Amino acid sequence: MSIALSALPISMRRIEKRFGSVPVLRDLNLDVEAGEFLTLLGPSGSGKTTLLMILAGFVRANGGSIKVGGDEIIATPPHKRNIGMVFQNYALFPHMNVSHNIAFALKQRRVPARETAERVEKALDMVKLGGLGERRVDQLSGGQRQRVALARAIVFEPRIVLMDEPLSALDKGLREHMQIELRALHRRLGMTTVYVTHDQREAITMSDRIAVMNAGRIEQLDKPETLYAAPKTQFVAGFIGESNFVPVESRNGSVWYEDRKIRTATPAPAAGQHLMVVRPETLRLVANDEPGDSVNVLDATVGDIIYQGDSFVCYVSLRDGRQLTLRDYCRSDVLARMPAPGQPIRLGLDARDTILVAAEG
Amino acid sequence: MNRIRNVSIVTIAGLMATVAVPAIAADTITVASWGGTYQEAQTKAFFDPAAAALGITIKQDTTNGLDDVRLQVTGNAVKWDITELGADECARGSKEGLFEKLDYGVIDKSGINPKLVHDDWVGISYTSVVLIYRTDVFGDKGPKTWADFWNVEKFPGRRALSSSQSTETLSVAALASGLPIDKVYPVDIDGALKSVDKIRGHVDAWWTSGAQAMQLVKDGEVDMASIWNGRAGTLKKEGAPVSFSFDQGVLTADCMVIPKGAKNKEAAMKALAMFVSPQLQANLPLYVDNGPVNEKAFETGKIPPERIKDINSAPENVKKQVLQDAEFWRDNLVEATEKFNNLIQQ
Amino acid sequence: MSAQSTLVNDTADATGRDLNARALRADARREELRLLALLSPSLLLVFAIIIVPVGWLFWLSLFDETGALSASNYARFFEQASYVRTFITTFKVAFIVTGACVLLGYPLAYMLSQLPRRAASICLIFVILPFWTSVLVRTYAWLVILQRKGLINSWLIDLGVISQPLPLANNLSGVVIGMTHILLPFLVLPLYASMKTIDTDCLRAGMNLGAGPVATFRQIFFPLSLPGLASGVVIVFVLCLGFFVTPALMGGGKVIMWAMRMEQTTSLYSNWGAGAALGVVLLAVTLALLGLFQWLLGARATGVWSSR
Prior knowledge:
The complex is a heterotrimer of chains A (361), B (346) and C (308). Chain A is an alpha+beta fold and 361 residues long.
């Protein structure tokens, strides 16, 4: 016997939630594919936790539909939703030992004692806590509690597993380790998972797809690499990865920064003001005679240079005083050409790395 | 308070050095009584006139009874020169040696019932336990005797008796069993307890304080009760529909003593002599329903004739009542009370 | 800086020992002394107002009225049936009142704990409000409400619900009502405080794992509220054992509790030992009960729930 999680798709339509007159979720639509690891990413107040609570049934939406594998659950009480959940602070039952915590859901489902014991054992092994079943919860470390919470959420083979910033209470090393383990577990069990975090690195590391949320709406839903490489809004570009924005103008089918034409891999957007998203790692120092047709060149002055061991960060100012950041690895060829602060330089930006987004208010 | 304590300390030091008590200390004595309206009446009747006549200052305090005296005397911290007690407490305290001998050369005992004149205590006033009933329930055909009170068929209704004053309730029970007034003492305790046993199932409340007895009757919680005449008189004055008489009353004396080791014994003796004198005794019923202990008070002419019939210790009324025998209860209180408690708590 | 260098010099000659060991030990001792100095007023206070009087009480209880060493003060409990009865009554009342406080107080505390903070603090004021009036006043107020011609009986008779007044005062029910009212806050406050600390996520987790509202309450909320309930129950129970005013006024002399008996006995007997013995017995039984309770709770917390 093993833990077999059915992978069901979730389909959310026109979810509305207001706290008093304050809208928290606005006409939200989201499809989670069966077996997918989907992350809701956003700053605090973006509505991601509220959406998760609505999914779990702890918060009642003002309107909308949630279908899991075709069944409408929006009005189903939480204890009948058959959804596993890992809470931010684990929410383990302090008056029960590890085994009883994990067995809780099975007990509610009147699973025979013998089978319960086997499944609890199995779940404990799965989260590498074999033999710790008799421990009291307060005798566990943070990472162990995290694993118990995880085992408790999956032992009853729920249709969906929800995780609300489950790693935020762990220290950095453990967090990164658990990210990998969670991901591996997901790959092994294949359950549909909705994960909430405000940590974009964590989201990128773990997710099949990420829904970036802002002010109660989904700004962009894409694979991590697409989100990074092709953010559709200034918010997404700013939230995922590090970005500098340079105002550009589109006119007559071309994009212009001041008097310089900007080459892009995509056709020029509609006429008007836009922002060029400049990632620090896509900028590089170029020699005067180097650039080819596919590279945009910007003139700048060197500010501070910060040495970080494997890499360095160089702050530069464009002619209009706008600050950009350049990051590169400390290869000897780069170091050899390292300019001194105050020195004028030229920056190269490959046309394929040139991202344009609409300027937001 | 502090001044008294300071004076006391000086006095103790003086006594220990067998030096004469400073004359100045004798100018002030402290008298303790029960407080409330009773003590206010005593102040007007006894304390103020005595203080004026003797040229001393009488300070006042309140007492909870024999326990307080015992605490002061055994603790060598006597702060009172005279204190009031119930007669049975006086008898018990006397046996325990808690009081100074009284000087009947100073105190004139004539006119006081000899049963209340002792080596170290003397009566001061009378209280009666009387039968009260509500006229809104019984009209004027209420229970008149304790036998009536015990007759639950003829006089249905709710009843209250005292549990804290076990000796008074036992006397009442003896009367209820049909004993004539002069045959109650010495109380046949077992007989009285049998009588209590007959009524206890019909007692709706056992009171432990005068205020409680009054409240029970006033609020109609009970229809008849044993009650102290002072409380009964107050109820009547307040206009409550009640009736009571001194027939088969149980007359209980209060007494005064000088606690052993009192600082101002001589002045206290003089003051006490004045308190029991007919002139001052006659003042008491002018202010309160507690009767004078000195029967010569009724000959002073101070008490209006129409008032006399309402005073429990007026010669006419004394004849109708049983006087509680303090010395009998001194010897039987503990045993009787324990048995009484056993019985009413069954 | 200079202090540090002197320290190093100081122990430079003491070879083979920890560096600055002497100075560090002295510092540790100073810290202990400071702690002791801070504790001493409270220790003195405990000694003066608890240990000494209780010891004296115990000492007194060993002597009879003649001043001779004797067990008569304790033997009396067995000779006189009324003492045993008083003892039983005291515990009976304490159990009933504690039970009534739990029945009324638990839902109240639960409701308070579920209210928004503002509403809860307003309601808490109402819970605490009775503390500001004297027990005597409140007891008399209950008498006015409960007695034969009191508010409740008058209303019920006027409404035609009953024809004869209910016996609410001057008996056990009067005592229980009066005491429950006075003691309820002592149960509600610790219970509310402990309910407030229960993590709402634990309850959500319970529901999420398939437990309905009732099962979640029974299996999670209730067990987690037990420590608060236990301390409330202990406080109320112990306070009950020593109650005087309310049973004296509301019991109509028919509910004699231990404290009332102490008062009676103290004035009845000429030796303090008689009353002192009652005090000693009550203290001993109370301590024994507390110990039992502690033991039960301890066993629960470590044993029952963690073993299968």
